[in-house]
Design a protein that fits this description.
Pyruvate-ferredoxin Oxidoreductase, domain 3; 4 domains
Length: 610
């Protein structure tokens, strides 16, 4: 007898569609309807880089326990794309469910004996109901949402409310979508009752959390952090950062005197960072949003900002590389590119948010750090954080907070005769004083250039002056350790000599994976790194453990490389766990890879499916 998966508020559903078919809106309604029922849901849109025609998937993680990272595998496949049928069916966990359009009969070889098959003649129903080909396609998506509502027990009122919100101001679209929703639900009620064992039950596990994309959160952080200038060039997956910033500025930075912000779409990424540097030199808070290829093009100007010591913020929404790579896939593969950007000896500050909430907080903090340290600051998000909707705690801001502009000499300081050397370290922290242009008519002026100079900004190619300047920049980088966000340490349930280090969007999957590892008696102390340069406690963590796993989403173990470079620790202590196929890492992948490296003969969980 077929064993069926029976779960309430704890399952994964994957929907396979064709890009450009209008499925994204329908799938979003499906995911959000369960959130409206108080059930935590994590959704991820996995889409191609073309306009239409290629496969796209939408994965919905339903977790009453609040595990919103990718689990790996899925309990139900909604197969709406014949191109990917075989792969989609193969990825269903044993005992799971296949929902498909049964209008066209398929041979038994296209199915599996260990899953439950649920067919609904969606195309046949749509062809009878609608004459327009586009309507047939669009409303088929809403019909399967209605059917899923009935199969899973989703309250129709919630789906209806979401349709009304989606088409607010377009009233003529509401009625036909409502009709399609109910056609799908009514069919499932009449013909498919009890067909699946996955159910949702109204809960109160969402609380006051909000649903937001990381790019929008980062843009809002820039607004609250005081940015008045944004310069950018369109590139996936960062474009919506600049677009969101423009939207927020229209609401929050427009007064009686008009706009008090400037947004420049430059001719390329090099020009964009040039605008940011110019604005920073003039005293504005400025940022750019880009991805790996953009950082590659910005190298020369990044070096200028580092050497001339000009504040700048770069939000790097990482994607698959190198070259064009996979523009709509996620990775954590720009760490080394950003940390040592430009030629010559450079070291840059990186902030590593784990979710949209931290993207908001760290984008604002980056603007403070850029001013305080007078240097470029990188906020390293990725496509998973940036372009997917996440359930996070409400974004909070302390209205008493004031911008930290760092060491700035005023007109009064200069009039009082204070010694101004633009590259003079008076406090031993490597950070000199600066002035804003126009502060004083004849004191405190300096010429910014990318060539060697002495402490008073006077051009020189004398070796001692160059060395003095480069050593001071290292002292400043050392000072940054005490200013950047510290790591987060979580101890295992019992004392252990094993640890794991990770960062960024890996966090959500790691939080779940650690529970399964504990069940398999693999106890790990955890350390989530939130910034580079690393706090001294990071190296202490490594030295206090016999063995540490380093989990990251790139091929070349870039975080491990930075750890070895910083701490001069024994390389044999650090074992890499690397995931880089372009899809967000899963809890199952982490559990299986660490388990095998820890000495288990076979992986304890079904392998992840991308």
């Amino acid at each position: 007898m077929l064993s069926r998966v029976e779960k309430i508020n704890d399952f994964v559903i994957r929907l396979a569609n064709v890009n450009g078919s209008g499925s994204a809106s329908a799938n979003r309604i499906f995911a959000r309807s369960m959130i409206r029922m108080g059930i935590p849901v994590g959704s991820r849109n996995i889409f191609p880089s073309n306009i239409q025609g290629l496969p796209t998937w939408y994965e919905v993680r339903v977790s009453g326990a609040g595990h919103l990272g990718r689990r790996g595998g899925y309990d139900m496949m909604v197969a709406m794309n014949p191109q990917t049928w075989d792969k989609d069916v193969a990825g269903i966990d044993a005992g799971g469910y296949l929902f498909y359009d049964s209008t066209k009969p398929l041979p038994s070889s296209k199915f599996r004996d260990d899953i439950t098959v649920v067919g609904m003649p969606l195309t046949e129903i749509c062809n009878k109901q609608y004459s327009d080909p586009r309507q047939r396609q669009l409303f088929k998506n809403i019909m399967y949402v209605g059917a899923l509502d009935a199969l899973l027990g989703i309250e129709t009122d919630e789906s209806e409310a979401l349709i009304k919100e989606l088409y607010q101001g377009k009233d003529k679209l509401i009625a036909p979508n409502m009709e399609a929703l109910h056609i799908g639900r009514d069919y499932a009620d009449q013909h498919l009752k009890g067909a699946i064992g996955l159910k949702v039950k109204r809960a109160d596990a969402v609380g006051d959390r909000i649903l937001i994309e990381g790019n929008a959160a980062a843009a809002l952080g820039c607004v609250y952090g005081g940015a008045t200038v944004a310069a950018w060039y369109p590139i996936t997956p960062s474009t919506s950062v600049a677009e969101a910033f423009a939207g927020y500025c229209k609401k929050l930075r427009t007064g009686e005197d008009g706009n008090n912000y400037a947004i420049v779409q430059a001719e390329d990424e090099l020009a964009a960072i040039g605008v940011v540097i110019g604005a920073g030199w003039n005293g504005s808070r400025a940022f750019t949003a880009t991805s790996g290829p953009g950082i590659s093009l910005m190298q020369e100007f990044i070096g200028l900002a580092y050497f001339a010591e000009i504040p700048a913020v770069l939000i790097d929404v990482q994607r698959g590389g190198p070259s064009t790579g996979m523009p709509t896939r996620t990775q954590q593969s720009d760490l080394l590119l950003a940390a040592f950007a430009s030629h010559g000896d450079t070291r840059h500050v990186l902030l590593l948010p784990a979710d949209p909430k931290e993207a908001f907080e760290m984008s604002a903090q980056a603007l403070d750090l850029a001013d305080r340290l007078q240097t470029p600051i990188f906020v390293m998000t990725d496509l998973d954080i940036g372009m997917n909707e996440w359930l996070v705690d409400p974004l909070k801001w302390d209205d008493k907070k004031r911008m930290d502009r760092g060491k700035v000499m005023t007109h009064a300081d200069l009039e009082a005769g204070k010694d101004f050397g633009r590259y003079l370290d008076v406090d031993g922290d490597g950070i000199p004083f600066r002035t804003y242009p126009g502060t004083h008519p004849d004191k405190g002026a300096y010429f910014t250039r990318g060539t060697s100079r002495d402490r008073y900004a006077r051009y020189t190619e004398e070796g001692p002056a160059y060395v003095d300047n480069m050593e001071r920049l290292l002292r400043k980088f050392e000072t940054a350790k005490s200013l950047v966000p510290p790591p987060v340490k979580i101890d295992a349930p019992k004392p252990t000599k094993y640890g794991v280090i990770y960062f960024g969007s890996t966090t959500s999957a790691m939080d779940e994976a650690i529970l399964a590892l504990n069940e398999n008696n693999i106890l790990l102390d955890r350390l989530r790194i939130r910034a580079y340069p690393f706090n001294d406690t990071v190296i202490d963590f490594i030295k206090n453990h016999d063995h540490v796993y380093v989990v990251e989403q790139n091929r070349d173990a870039q975080l491990r490389t930075l750890l070895l470079d910083t701490g001069k620790v024994d390389p044999s202590r650090l074992t890499s766990v690397l995931h880089y196929d372009g899809n967000p890492i899963t809890a199952r992948f982490i559990v299986n890879d660490i388990s095998l490296k820890h000495g288990m003969n076979k992986p304890p969980l079904k392998e992840s499916v991308s």
